[in-house]
């Protein structure tokens, strides 16, 4: 298990891409509201395949929009 912290989607994607094929991780997206207070987070599942990284939102089933608005920090938590 390992963790890393990132400030934007690009560095998060780079960290996920560096993991070996078969690795799995969670991405904890921490956001702030209009008053700079931490808002409800968003948890994504990441799977590294031979074709690349797949990000899944298990709660909605819709394609992800990697919107940078309000992103405070992104945490990659590798568990496999």
Characteristic terms for this protein:
11% helix, 80 residues, 5 strands, mainly beta, 5-stranded antiparallel sheet, globular
How is this structure best described in words?
With 80 residues, this protein is mostly beta strands. It has one domain (2-78). Helix content is 11%, strand content 42%. The protein contains 1 helix and 5 strands. It has one helix at residues 9-17; strands at residues 2-6, 24-31, 42-49, 52-56, 71-78. A 5-stranded antiparallel sheet has the order 1-5-2-3-4, with helices on one face. A hairpin with a 2-residue loop joins strand 3 (42-49) and strand 4. The protein is globular.
Report on the biggest sheet.
Answer: 5 strands, antiparallel
| Secondary-structure element string | EHEEEE
Give the overall silhouette. globular
* Unreliable spans: none
Number of E strands: 5
Number of helices: 1
* N-end to C-end Cα span: 7 Å
Helical content stands at 10-25%
Number of domains: 1
How large is the radius of gyration? 13 Å
Helix/sheet category: mainly beta
Strand content: 35-45%
- Cross-sheet strand order for the largest sheet: 1-5-2-3-4
- Give the averaged pLDDT, no decimals: 90
């Amino acid at each position: 298990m390992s963790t890393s912290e990132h400030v934007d989607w690009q560095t998060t994607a780079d960290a996920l891409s560096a993991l070996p094929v078969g690795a799995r991780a969670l991405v904890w997206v921490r956001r702030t509201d209009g008053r700079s207070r931490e808002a409800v987070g968003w948890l994504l599942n990441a799977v590294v395949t031979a074709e690349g990284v797949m990000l899944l939102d298990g709660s909605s089933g819709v394609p992800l929009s990697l919107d940078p608005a309000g992103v405070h920090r992104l945490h990659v938590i590798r568990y496999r």
